[in-house]
Write a structure and sequence with these properties.
14% of the residues lie in helices and 37% in strands. By secondary structure, the chain is mainly beta. The chain has two domains: 507 residues, Methylamine Dehydrogenase, Chain H; 65 residues, no CATH class. It has a four-stranded antiparallel β-sheet with strand order 1-30-29-28, with no helix packed on it. The protein has a four-stranded antiparallel β-sheet with strand order 2-3-4-5, with no helix packed on it.
Length: 576
């Protein structure tokens, strides 16, 4: 490979310190049956929670499908043409799927059906699939943490139809997050019709959950639970008497969507829950009024108090849509940070806020053209971090900030470059912020992102990849990881996040993929990683244009992996 020759010449001229680095990267492992693995939070005592995506062998039920319907026939014809474009012969027919169990024996047939169903995720007449699960990392490896999914009545195993996200974990291993109810295959008959239809329906869209270290689950349902309601848990801290959990809950249904539901969701032409969910997708802010909440729990996870917070805006008489606030992070002092609707010049924006003493206060200056954002973390020194967005060079870009409540000051540090989007995911008590930012200055659409570290007072953003070795231990093979995102940092300055690396490509069964000539194909995958500070010095890597080319070959916008239905990753994606 050409970079081996380059490496040899460079190593001949670099000092011995060039073989060192200031951080050591190690993989945390992952779910064997999943392609991508992520970290969402880490406690000071080393409890690690995360997310796995791209599950292999998703269960596909074909018993209810009409294979003479034009939609699936057209999808098959399109797939066949795509195969022809790469000189590949299609290895299955629709009859094979319907009658010969091809979906369980032929990876191409399975991938086709998963794609077909995914493209109909909003149509209740088709099975729902979710490729993301919540995970726990231990010294023995990664394991799945089931939230609300249940055993299927139609095939072996879980339904694999639920949202699953663990957001935060305490020092004694108590976790919080949220998930959705599983979809159930249900028979429905329209009014004045005789023929039964098959629909896939669920009881609720989102429900907060608390899980003890030994697996005891406590659901945190909203008091307003019409049509299932909404709740999610975003952060948790341990207190002297138990725990405090923050998140968001539904408090009502806004006037306009309620009128639509009352007028149209009568159960005559479609199931009521399907109709309600359609309206929830139609309205930009959903159908529910949602408010930030703090649950107080005792040491046995019994809820002893529920405190609902308000919003930083007063609804006008003619504003019949939903209003929202969300508590995303809490520290040991009880300071809560999150988001709320905020009014500026008669326009509503969702902005970072703090909840304190019954008040909801924003702190980002609208006069500087910031128009949306989120507060994502707060340390025990009352410093809040997150991002806000504004138009830069004709495009809306996010920029990370830190807000010091004690001095009531907001700082937007200089990130990778002027039009780079960035966000801060976490901050430790040492004042070190970690996050991610765009590093591809030349691409105007989808840009590569890489993790960063920023220390308050030093005014310098450091790309975490610059603190890692350029080469593997043999001194010739380029270092195979690129840190795409820094998610969490503890007070030992250990950083946890997501890196990408190039591996042999696998199909939807987990088998290695070869091209038409029999050559193994390769792809980039996301892996959960831990970065530990070590004694060393920053390595002098090759010239920028070579480094950019080589690192880019194994990098990609990792968040694109979360575009499958129901997938998510911690804090920036937790907003409901």
């Amino acid at each position: 490979m050409k970079y081996k020759l380059l490496a040899a010449s460079i190593l001949a001229t670099l000092s011995t310190s060039a073989m060192s680095a200031t951080y050591k990267l190690e993989e945390l492992g992952g779910i064997d049956g999943a392609k991508f693995n992520y970290v969402t939070d880490v406690s000071e005592n080393g409890h690690i929670i995360g997310l796995a995506n791209g599950l292999y062998k998703l269960p596909v039920d074909v018993t209810y499908i009409d294979f003479t319907d034009s939609s699936i026939k057209d999808a098959y014809d399109t797939a066949k043409k795509q195969y022809e474009l790469i000189d590949k012969e299609i290895t299955f027919t629709l009859d094979d799927i319907e009658n010969n169990d091809a979906v369980n024996t032929n990876a191409d047939a399975h991938a086709f059906m998963v794609s077909f169903l995914t493209g109909r995720s909003t149509d209740s007449e088709y099975q729902k699939l979710s490729s993301a699960i919540a995970t726990l990392y231990t010294s023995e490896g990664a394991s799945e943490q089931v939230l609300f999914d249940e055993q299927s009545l139609d095939f072996d195993g879980l339904t694999r139809s639920t949202s699953n996200l663990l957001n935060a974990v305490t020092d004694d291993g108590v976790m919080v997050g949220w998930g959705s109810a599983p979809y159930e295959k249900t028979s429905f008959t329209q009014t004045d019709e005789d023929e039964e239809e098959t629909h896939f329906l669920r009881d609720f869209i989102s429900r907060a959950i608390v899980i003890s270290e030994d697996g005891v689950k406590v659901e945190l349902a909203p008091e307003f639970d019409d049509y299932g309601g909404i709740s999610s848990a975003n952060d948790i801290i341990k207190t002297a008497n138990g725990y405090e959990v923050v998140g968001t809950v539904s408090t009502d249904i806004a006037v306009d969507p309620l009128d639509d539901i009352t007028d149209n969701c009568d159960g005559e032409d479609e199931p009521v829950s399907d109709c309600v969910e359609a309206y929830n997708r139609t309205y930009t802010k959903g159908i529910f009024d949602k408010r930030a909440v703090k649950w107080t729990l005792d040491s046995n996870l019994n809820v002893t108090n529920t405190e609902i917070f308000g919003i930083n805006a007063t609804p006008e008489d003619d504003e019949d849509f939903a209003f929202r606030s969300n508590a995303i992070a809490i520290n040991e002092n009880g300071l809560i940070a999150g988001t709320s609707d905020v009014r500026y010049k008669d326009v509503l924006y969702s902005m970072p806020v703090i909840f304190e003493n019954g008040e909801v206060n924003d702190f980002i200056d609208f006069e500087d053209d910031w128009r949306t954002g989120q507060a994502l973390a707060v340390n025990n020194n009352d410093v809040v971090v997150g991002y806000a967005a504004k138009r830069i060079d004709g495009t809306t870009r996010t920029k990370f900030f830190y807000y010091d409540k004690n001095s009531d000051s907001v700082v937007f540090p200089t990130d990778y470059f002027s039009s780079s989007s960035s966000l801060a995911n976490d901050i430790n008590d040492n004042g070190i912020i970690v996050g991610e930012g765009e590093t591809d200055i030349y691409n105007t659409s989808t840009r590569r992102r890489e993790g960063f570290m920023y220390t308050i007072g030093e005014d310098s953003v450091v790309n975490l990849n610059d603190l890692l070795p350029c080469y593997e231990e043999d001194g010739e093979t380029r270092f195979k990881y690129t840190v795409a995102e820094a998610k969490s940092i503890n007070n030992n300055n250990e950083i946890f996040g997501v890196a990408t690396k190039t591996v042999e490509k696998t199909d939807s069964f987990g088998n290695v993929v070869v091209d038409v000539n029999g050559n193994i194909e390769y792809e980039s995958v996301a892996v959960a990683v831990k970065l530990t500070p070590i004694d060393g010095s920053v390595e002098e890597c090759p010239a920028e244009e070579i480094e950019q080319y080589e690192r880019q070959s194994a990098s990609f916008p990792w968040y694109a992996l979360l575009l499958l239905p129901f997938a998510a990753a911690r804090r920036v994606f937790r907003k409901k």
